[in-house]
Amino acid sequence: MNGKLLEGKVALVTGSGRGVGRGIALDLAAAGARVVVNDIGASTTGEGADLGPAQQVVEEIRAAGGHAVADTHSVADWDEAHAMVQTAIDAFGRIDIVINNAGILRDTIFHKMTREEFEAVINVNLNGPFYVSRAAAPHFKAQNGGNYVHITSSSGLIGNFGQANYAAAKLGVAALSKSIAMDMQRFNVRSNAVAPWAWTRMVNTIPAETEEQKKRVEGLMKLIPERIAPFVTALSSDAAAGVTGQIFGVRNNEIYLFSQSRPIRTAHTSDGWTPESVIERVFPMFENDFYPLHRSGDVFTWDPV
User: Per the similarity annotation, which family is this (predicted)?
Assistant: First the structure.
């Protein structure tokens, strides 16, 4: 079944020269999709450029009998995002699937984070998915169909230390995905977000100086980036036609469906609230349901399987 699952489809995968994106590109191609492998070949902080990684994945796909072309445009630029979608049109005549995977890290504790460190991550990790998705939207609308998969992160959905820029972008991606799902539903277009757990170049930048950090990194090294791909391929297929507006997670052999924000407690008064009555009644009433300052690792405490 896998060989025909995406037959006739054309997919664009951003940041697919390495890691999670590479695994997704290879798996989509194995399922029959023709793939635009987009990657500027930059460092984990977004610096430098190397045409090699994207072309190498293209060659892997072609060697396996698939069809692919390389693209080195940047997701962080409106015009270049449109150019990479045009690459799909020029090479394969259409576009059906957009996987917004490209990302960078600039980890810094909040009170030391510079404007440049914040904006650089937002530009790639949040503006990028908007630019690329927006560039594909007219094509999806015209053909009455299309599928977006946006890579989010538990850093945004739950939280992590020293990642205010990355967390803000990745939680924004989840909201962007939901909005696209609602706005484009009438055109038979789906949009979902997936949080991957995987040992990649970006994860490799996490400090491992204290015993706690070393233990965390040892656990992360067990996470295989290629394990994300089968779920993304399934989600990109017509067999998932009823799945949209959702947030998923994939961690080796585990797949999660994430909750989305809903009220969990309510306080009401017929007399209207004053600051004093809020302090006296509301905070004590809600206190047992306050969320602790958990990091992702505090929630996902078990070893990956």
Answer: Belongs to the short-chain dehydrogenases/reductases (SDR) family.
pTM over 0.90: yes
166 a catalytic residue: yes
**257, burial (CB in 10 Å: exposed 0-12, middle 13-18, buried 19+):** exposed
Q: Which of 131, 166, 256, 291 is catalytic?
A: 166
Domain 2-260, CATH 3.40.190.10 — does that match?
Answer: no
207-225 pLDDT, tens digit per residue, is 556 776 566 566 666 788 8
Q: What residues form DSSP beta bridges with 257?
A: 248
Which residue, among 183, 175, 182, 95, has the nearest Cα to 143 in the 3D structure? 95
Q: How far apart are CA 193 and CA 180, in angstroms?
A: 11
Nearest partner of 258 among 181, 179, 152, judged by Cα: 152
Q: pLDDT digit string (tens) for 2-54?
A: 448 999 999 999 999 999 999 999 999 999 999 999 999 865 555 655 678 99
Is 257 in contact with 247 (CB distance < 8 Å)?
yes
Angstrom distance (rounded) from CA 101 to CA 90: 22
Which of 189, 207, 281, 295 shows the shortest CA–CA distance to 244?
Answer: 189
Residue type, 151: I
- Does residue 72 contact residue 39 with C-beta atoms inside 8 Å? yes
CA dihedral 273, 278, 280, 286 (to 10 degrees): 130
